[in-house]
Write a structure and sequence with these properties.
The protein is 29% helix and 37% strand. With 104 residues, the protein is an alpha+beta fold. It has one domain. Strands 1, 2, 3, 4, 5 and 6 form a 6-stranded mixed beta sheet that branches. Strand 4 and strand 5 form a beta hairpin. 23% of the residues are buried.
């Protein structure tokens, strides 16, 4: 089970090598996630960072290194998207590649 922690209105998921999730559609592992909740907590913006199997092989990056890079990128994404969460009228999600591009 993934450990979760709250900071203000942001729920962080603290992944470990044993708790990463696999997305077969993207052929990728979720290494970082944060849910930014609206002030009334009715909606949230889910930000996820994934490490594709292809990138893992090409870069020869370990799961642990991917989690560290994912967490660093996630902090940047939270800063960039935090204001957007205040305007949400429904829950939405964005999935980013470990190198930064939006995948979906």
């Amino acid at each position: 089970m993934v450990a979760r922690r709250w900071m203000d209105n942001i729920e962080y998921y603290d992944y470990l090598p044993t708790t990463i999730g696999y997305d077969p559609e993207l052929d990728a592992f979720t290494v970082a996630r944060a849910d930014i909740h609206t002030p009334d907590r009715r909606h949230r913006l889910v930000l996820m960072v994934v490490m594709t199997d292809r990138a893992m092989r090409a870069e020869r990056i370990s799961i642990e290194a991917g989690i560290c890079r994912g967490r660093a990128l996630l902090e940047q994404l939270v800063r960039e998207h935090r204001a957007l969460a205040d305007q949400l009228t429904s829950t939405t999600s964005r999935v980013f590649d470990l190198s930064g591009p939006l995948l979906r």
